[in-house]
Amino acid sequence: MKRIALYIVIALVAASCGGRAKESRRSAPKVYRFQYVTPPPHATQQQRLLYMEEHYWDKFDFCDTTFISKVDTAEMMRAFAGYFLNFVRPDDARPMQRLIKRSAVSEPMFKYFVMLAERLFHDPNSPYRNDEQYIPVLEAQIASPYYDEYERMVPQYDLHTALQNRIGHPANDFKYTVASGRTSNLYSVRSPYTLIYINNPGCPMCREIQQAIEASPLLSRMIAGGELCVLGIYPDKELDEWRNHPLPASWVNAYDKGCVIEQKRLYDLRAIPALYLLDSRKRVLVKDSTSVAEIEAVINALSE
Question: Tens digits of per-residue pLDDT, 197-255?
């Protein structure tokens, strides 16, 4: 499943680089490839992982800006994604900090690695969106001499959004309104776990996620037992559409009156649907996910 999702990311890169005229085989330039390192042959699994985290980029010449004009972008995306998906913990930003610092030897190299990070960790269609990994990239862009004050405006905006609702931190509170007109707020929900389900009735993936939640024996049992409250929130204005697509009766089916969440940028709404799992104190356990399996895994891990 991870491999299929990675192909989706690579396809996004390939699409963004499309539209170039095809050359004949005879005139096609040599394709440069990323050179992988090999861990010591007798290392343990843990030693191999640590070695690859530290030495993965040893054969890459960050000073060779001609490489990025000759390398196949999809191939480089595979190398970049492979590093972070296989050898870096999702919540450990230090390897990204080191990598983006190394890439800053020149403007072309720095912006190339910014592009790779954006495709993997920030593109709304990427299954590996991860603000913790993207925050160091945004901070580096803002501090970089390669950007003027106007060019810094986009990463500054994105950084503000990325810093909201971080894992382990309290979630942003918001008001919600149900069909009867009653208004309440997130922090009024009393439950060991709260699952915020940001959704749009016309979204096919939203229906898939709803079905996955309903089909989950764990989540269904927790909802029935009062251990989990699913708070469905519709963030848009077309209320007729929302009323015509009700959620299960055991969930809270609400909308954001006045679209305050979007206006105040309380949550990232670039990609819908989105799931946020919170504990009893409304600390974020899972952020901006589309995986019900991930929600289940986190709950199971906390129950052990």
Answer: 999 988 899 999 999 999 999 999 999 999 999 999 999 998 998 998 889 999 999 99
Structure tokens at 56: 């993965």
Return the number of other C-beta atoms located less than 10 Å from residue 81's C-beta.
22
State pTM to two decimals: 0.83
The CATH number of the domain covering residues in 175-303: 3.40.30.10
The predicted-structure confidence for 8-24, as pLDDT tens digits, reads as follows: 444 444 444 444 444 44
Q: Show the 3-state SS of the chain.
A: CHHHHHHHHHHHHHHHCCCCCCCCCCCCCCCECCCCCCCCCCCCHHHHHHHHHHHCCCCCCCCCHHHHHHECHHHHHHHHHHHHHHHCCCCCCHHHHHHHHHHCCCHHHHHHHHHHHHHHHCCCCCCCCCHHHHHHHHHHHHHCCCCCCCCCHHHHHHHHHHCCCCCCCECCCCEEEECCCCEEEHHHCCCCEEEEEECCCCCHHHHHHHHHHHHCHHHHHHHHCCCEEEEEEECCCCHHHHHCCCCCCCCEEEECHHHHHHHCCCCCCCCCCEEEEECCCCEEEEEEECCHHHHHHHHHHHHC
- Strand 274-278 relative to strand 284-289: parallel, antiparallel, unpaired? antiparallel
Pairing of strands 175-178, 252-255: antiparallel
Domain ranges of the chain: 2-17+27-162, 175-303
Contact of 103 with 112, CB cutoff 8 Å: yes
Residue 177: count of CB within 10 angstroms of its CB: 17
CB 286 within 8 A of CB 294: yes
pLDDT in tens, 59-89: 999 999 999 989 989 999 999 999 999 999 9
The pLDDT value recorded for residue 32 is: 79
